[in-house]
Structures are given as C-alpha cells and as structure tokens.
Amino acid sequence: MTKSPDDSRLELLQGTLDMLVLRTLQWGPRHGHGIGQTIRAQSDDLLRVETGSLYPALHRLEKRGWLASEWGVSEANQRAKYYRLTEDGKAQLLRERDRWSQLVHAIGRIMNPAPAGDE
User: Fold this and answer.
1) Is the pTM of this model over 0.85?
2) How far apart are alpha carbons 51 and 59 in whole angstroms?
C-alpha cells in the first residue's frame, strides 16, 4: 500500500487551533492566509489549517476580544483583513501554553510511564 502525501499530516487536537493562531500572531499582525501559511511552515508542513476551520476560529477569537482586526493591503496587492493579538489575547496565550504544557506532561506520563519503584 502506498502512502498518500496526506498520510504524514497530523490532525489538530480539538482546541489547539486557537492556541496556534494566538502564537502565530505573537510574531506580528497577519492576514488569514498568512496565518495558515505560517502554521504550515512552522510545523514543517505537518499541520495544514483548512479555510473552513481557520476563519471561524479567527472570528471566534476576535469576538472574545483576543484578536483585533483591520483592513489592509496584502503582499499580492489585494485587500485583506489583518489580525493582531490584543492584550487579552496575550494573556490567553499564556494560559493556553500552561494548559498545553500540562497536557503534554500528562500524556507523556501515560505513554512513557516511570519504571516500577521509580515513583
């Protein structure tokens, strides 16, 4: 059986897209397509955010006050909505990073349990 190019891609865990969007915008304002491209590039092409997931996430984060947006002109000289992290968004990103660290630690304990007697 041959592997399709999509076989090596990873599915995002529910709830991680918001954290990835917030983290991406920590590096500066970006338009939606640029956010998706950054996530893809930073993950070595393992994570691809579909338009149908990205834009609802951006609207949800903006509604929560974690992002602000304004219209601008893209590198391709097209009108685009640029998103930036708000102060509340920066605080939320810190909370998300803490939660993510706890999740990774907990999963690591299950996947790589300490040998008996080491606890």
Assistant:
1) no
2) 12
Residue-by-residue pLDDT tens, the chain, 119 positions: 444 455 556 566 667 999 999 999 999 999 999 999 999 999 999 999 999 999 999 999 999 999 999 999 988 899 999 999 999 999 999 999 999 999 999 999 999 998 876 55
Reported as type and span, the H/E element at residue 80 is strand 79-85
Q: How many C-beta atoms lie closer than 10 Å to residue 16's C-beta? A: 14
Q: Could you tell me which residues come within 8 angstroms of residue 18 by beta carbon, excluding any fewer than 6 positions away?
A: 57, 60, 61, 96
With vertex at residue 56, the alpha carbon angle to CA 53 and CA 65, rounded to the nearest 5 degrees, is 130
Instruction: Measure CA 46 to chain center.
Output: 12
